[in-house]
Amino acid sequence: MSRKQRVVVVGNGMVGHHFVEQITSLIKPNTGVEVTVLSGEERLAYDRVHLSEFFTGKTANDLALTNEQIYTDWQVRFFTNAKVTDINRVKQQVTTSGGVTFDYDKLVLATGSFPFVPPIPGKDREHCLVYRTITDLDAIKHSASSSKVGVVIGGGLLGLEAANALKQLGLETHVVEFAPQLMGVQVDNGGGRLLKDKITALGVQVHTSMATEEIVDGDRCRYKMCFKGGKTLETDLILFSAGIRPYDNLAREFDLAVGERGGIVINNHCQTSDQNIYAIGECALWNNFIFGLVAPGYAMAKIAAKHILFNNNDDAFFGADMSTKLKLMGVEVGSIGDAHARAPGARSYVFDDQLAGVYKKVVTNQAGTRLIGAVLVGDTSDYDNLLQYHLNDLALNAAPESLIFPLAPPPDTVSITDLPADAVICSCHQVTKHTIEQAVLSGANDLVDVQAITKACTGCGSCENRVNCIIEHSLAITKAQPQQLSDEVLIPVTELA
Predict the structure, then answer these.
(1) Is the separation of the CB atoms in 120 and 214 below 8 Å?
(2) What is the pLDDT, as a whole number, of residue 490?
(3) Which range, of 93-102, 162-171, 326-335, 399-408, averages the lowest pLDDT?
(4) 170, 357, 374, 496: which has the highest count of C-beta atoms within 10 A?
C-alpha cells in the first residue's frame, strides 16, 4: 500500500483556512492525501474582515471560521502555537519553534502579512500597538482602559477601521496620515476630501500631510508625537496602521525567490521557485503585485488545491479585481477598478453634492463606451450596478453621467437578464450568476439556502442585494417556465459549493 501524499499548510488565517476547506472538499475517500495545518497563533482561523466587531460585543468564538471538531471531522491534523522556523527543501521537512518536524510532499505557505511600523524613535513604548490579530485587540482594550486619548498612525482602510475601534472604546480619537488625503489607494482627491469631512463630523480628528519624527514623554498625556515642521500632538495610546508587509521571512531564509520589495514570487498556479512549495494570499507576489484583499487569496487557494491534487493546469490565477464596498464609522465608501483614471485616454464624470455629503465619479474609456472605474463616498447605492458594468465589460448604452447624476435621464441599469451566465456576483468566493440560478433549481428558496449551497454573500456581504435579485428572478421564472432559467444540466446541490 502506497503512503499518503502529505500536504502541509503553514498559516491558518482566512486564506490558509480556505485552502484547507477547498482541498478537503476535493479529496475523494481513500485517495491517500493527508493534510496538516500549522498555525502560528494560539487559535485556529478567524474572520479578520470583521475584526472591528470585537469591540462591539463579538467574541473570539463568534469570529471563528473553524474549530477543532470541524478539522477533526475533515480528517485534518492541526497544531496551534506551531510557528515554522525552518524549511529543509532537500529532505522536504519543516520544523516549528517547538522543535517538532513535519514531512511534506507539497508545502503551502499561507503566512499572510504583518503590520508595517515606521522607524520612528519611540515606537517601541508600552502603549504603542498594532491592529492585526485578536491578541492585538486584547492589548488595545487593556491599554484603552487606562487611556483618554488615542492616535492611529495611518489613514488607509485599516487605519480608519482602527480609529473606529478606538472611538468605540470611548477615547478621544485622532488619525495621523502622511499623505494629503485618506484612503489614497481606493479613492481620489475629491472622495478623500469628503471622507475626511464626514469622519471629522463624527468626532474623529484627522491630520493629513503629517510626518511623525519622534515619540517622547508627554506633558498632559503619556506621550507626545513630534511632527516635521514643529507641530505636536499628545496621546495616551498610539496605534500603528500604516500598511502591511508580506510575511515572506521563510522564503528569504530558505532561498525561495522573493520580489525586490518583498513577497514570495509565484507563477499562475501559485507555485514558488520550488515546484513543491506554493504560496497564497498576502505573502504571495504575482506579476510583481501583492493582493491585500481576501477574495484574491481565496482564488489562489482554490487554484493551488486543484494543482496539488490533480496537477490541473487549466485553472490559473491571472490577477483579481480589487473593487471594494464598505462602511467606515457609518460612512459608505465604494471603489471600483481604475478609480484614479490612470488609464490612457480615461474620462471622468463627477457628481459632487457637498450639501448632501455625496461624491460620485465614474471613469470610462476614451470612447465613453465602457466603465473602467468609479468612486462613491456617502452613497454606495449605485455600487452593484456599476460593478457589473465593470466586471463584465458591458457596453454603456446611455450617457455615462446618467449612471450617477440624479437630474440626468433615468440611469442605464444592469438588469438580471442583461448579465451573462458567467458574471461573477460574489467576488469573495467567485460565485457566478449561473451557480446561484442552479442553487435555486436545486431547491434553494432564499438567501440563507443559497449561502449554504454556494457560499455567495458569506464574505464581505456587499453582494447581498444582487444575490437576492437573482434569487427572486430565478424563483419567478422557475414557477412560470423552469426550462428558461438555464440551458445547462442541473448540477447536484453537493457540487455547487
Answers:
(1) yes
(2) 39
(3) 399-408
(4) 374
Task: Tell me the one-letter amino acid at 57.
Answer: G
What's the confidence (pLDDT) of residue 484? 53
Q: What is the reported pLDDT for 491?
A: 39
The DSSP bridge partners found for residue 114 are: 245
| Whether pLDDT at 46 is above 50 | yes
pLDDT at residue 408 is higher than 60: no
**247 closest CA partner among 90, 16, 50, 20:** 16
Beta pairing, strands 101-103 & 76-79: unpaired
Q: Which residues contact 458 (CB under 8 A, 6 or more apart)?
A: 428, 429, 451
Percent of the chain with pLDDT over 70: 94
Q: Which pTM value belongs to this model?
A: 0.86
Q: What pLDDT shows up at residue 495?
A: 39
Q: What is the pLDDT of residue 127?
A: 97
What average pLDDT does the structure give for the chain?
A: 91
- 3-state SS of the chain? CCCCEEEEEECCCHHHHHHHHHHHHHCCCCCCEEEEEECCCCCCCECCCCHHHHHHCCCHHHHECCCHHHHHHCCEEEECCCCEEEEECCCCEEEECCCCEEECCEEEECCCEEECCCCCCCCCCCCEEECCCHHHHHHHHHHHCCCCEEEEECCCHHHHHHHHHHHHCCCEEEEECCCCCCCCCCCCHHHHHHHHHHHHHCCCEEECCCCEEEEEECCCCCEEEEECCCCEEEECEEEECCCEEECCHHHHHCCCCECCCCCEEECCCCECCCCCEEECHHHEEECCECCCCHHHHHHHHHHHHHHHHHCCCCCCCCCCCCCEEEEECCEEEEEEECCCCCCCCCEEEEEEECCCCEEEEEEECCCCCEEEEEEEECCCCCHHHHHHHHHCCCECCCCHHHHCCCCCCCCCCCCHHHCCCCCEEECCCCEEHHHHHHHHHCCCCCHHHHHHHHCCCCCCCCCHHHHHHHHHHHHHHHHHCHHHCCCCCCCCHHHHC
